[in-house]
Amino acid sequence: MARDAVIVAAVRTPLAKRNGGLSGVHPADLSALVLRGLAERTGLDPALVDDVVWGCVSQVGEQTFDIARTAVLSAGWPERVPGVTVDRQCGSSQQAVHFAAAGVIAGHYDIAVAGGVEVMSRVPMFSAITEGTSPLGELYAERFGSEFPNQGMGAEDVATMWHLSRSQLDEYSLHSHQRAAQAMDEGRFADEIVPVTTADGVVIAADEGVRRGGSTEAMARLKPAFKPDGMITAGNASQISDGAAALLVTTSERAGELGLTPIARVHSAVVLGDAPMPMLTAPIPATRKLLDRSGVSIHAIGAFEVNEAFASVPLAWLAETGADPKALNSNGGSIALGHPLGASGARLMTTLVHHMRHNGIRYGLQTMCEAGGQANATLLELM
Ligand SMILES: CC(C)(COP(=O)(O)OP(=O)(O)OC[C@H]1O[C@@H](n2cnc3c(N)ncnc32)[C@H](O)[C@@H]1OP(=O)(O)O)[C@@H](O)C(=O)NCCC(=O)NCCS
Fold first, then answer.
1. Mean pLDDT, to the nearest integer, of 273-278?
2. How far apart are CA 172 and CA 237, in angstroms?
């Protein structure tokens, strides 16, 4: 039997607002909580895990020193279980799933955990860039200029390039909140959320970023966040947040031996680069590459998770791909729920597999824009 890679379980913490309910939790501890949650939900003996592949963007301070390994040890898992930390910027933990799946298919792993974390309250975005230094050297500057690429300006450029209006961005974002609120009210996240009990005994069980009763009028009053005459605001950008997510990846054969029921198979996985500025366009060619590789038509796909880094990103993607808008981010996205950078790839995939299972959707596609102008794209098939 040819080796495949299947997802047998997927869990996440609630996503908390910046300085909200999870801001008192160390990122290694938050990671450990989802690892424990995964083991508890599956009954899996953690000693069987061959590797933990963990996305994290700001690998500095509390998030450095290979946080994947610290998370394993903090979870109480056996010392023999290793962990490795991955940086593909906002797609880090989607990349972690790709690495885990490839390792399982290759036979390097029988069982792997893929996931990620970011506690942006404690380790702010860009905090790995130290005063007076730049990750970009002279050769980069000769090619692309010395200005540091700014994702908000990239989102502005994407809105302009695809002729998107401020009201289109705000309307899309309002829908993200409405869809997330409906998903919460209908208990659609119940199977995926591992509640977190903080040190002072407070139980955080629900996503904090979702706004109810919003309006496009209130959103229209928000000031541009990145340039004075711009369209990108706090309302149509992803929120800065805290969270962690994890998926258990193995072969269907091993899952059967362990008595675990696979949810979805990793059908195809690609990654691709596009221009480093406007930075956020790569999900479009990555989707094309994925469709070409898989031979599956966009019209056969019933669920899409396209990360809402900014509203202009999924809207440009939609305009180019012709995907069904109703199937796009139907449980809300990072605008409503939040975008804890290193956790988001695994968070989106967790929501995607549960959504596919609940609704009997055969194919689901995920893609995310990433700093540096890259994108991962994954096609899942329900089992
Ligand atoms: C856009 C951004 C700069 C805004 O930051 P911020 O100003 O600190 O955002 P806040 O959450 O404090 O919101 C600002 C205001 O907008 C309001 N607001 C936010 N969303 C709103 C909505 N949907 N409706 C009405 N008001 C809203 C907030 O209530 C807040 O109001 P206040 O100032 O009266 O308290 C920040 O969210 C950001 O950088 N996002 C992108 C993160 C990122 O780049 N991730 C990587 C992707 S590539």
1. 98
2. 11
**Ligand 1 mean position, distance from CA 330 (Å):** 22
Cis peptide leading into residue 278 (ω within 30°): yes
Length reported for the chain: 383
Rounded to an integer, the average pLDDT of 243-259 is 98
Q: What is the pLDDT of residues 119-146, one digit of tens each?
A: 999 999 999 999 999 999 999 999 999 9
Active site residue 56: no
Q: Can 369 be counted among the known catalytic residues?
A: yes
Q: Which of 18, 93, 125, 240 to mutate to test the pocket of ligand 1 (most atoms within 8 A of CB)?
A: 240
Nearest atom (ligand 1) to Cα of 309: 47
| CB atoms closer than 10 angstroms to residue 215 | 10
Atom index in ligand 1 nearest the CA of residue 215 equals 24
| Dist. CA 23 → ligand 1 center (Å) | 17
Which tens digits make up the pLDDT trace of 151-195?
999 999 999 999 999 999 999 999 999 999 999 999 999 999 999
Count of alpha carbons within 13 Å of 238, Cβ hemisphere only? Answer: 30
Helix (H, G, I), strand (E, B) or coil at 220: helix
Q: Which pLDDT does position 14 carry in this prediction?
A: 98
218 lines ligand 1 (CB under 6 A): yes
Residue 1 confidence (pLDDT): 76
CATH code for position 328: 3.40.47.10
Q: Is residue 375 within 6 Å of ligand 1 at its C-beta?
A: no
Assigned domain for 137 exists: no
Q: What is the pLDDT of residues 70-109, one digit of tens each?
A: 999 999 999 999 999 999 999 999 999 999 999 999 999 9
Structural domains of the chain, count? 1
Tell me if 68 CB under 6 Å of ligand 1: no
Residue 358 maps to a domain: yes
Structural domain range at position 356:
267-382
The response to whether residue 237 sits with its C-beta less than 6 Å from ligand 1 reads yes
For residue 327, report the distance from its CA to the centre of ligand 1, in Å: 26
- Mention every residue, 6+ apart, whose C-beta is less than 8 A from residue 71: 28, 31, 32, 35, 52, 54, 83, 117
How far, in Å, CA of 371 to CA of 126, rounded?
12
Q: Is residue 355 part of a domain?
A: yes
Question: Ligand 1 atom 21: the closest Cα is on which residue?
Answer: 235
Residue 32 within a domain: no
pLDDT at 148: 95
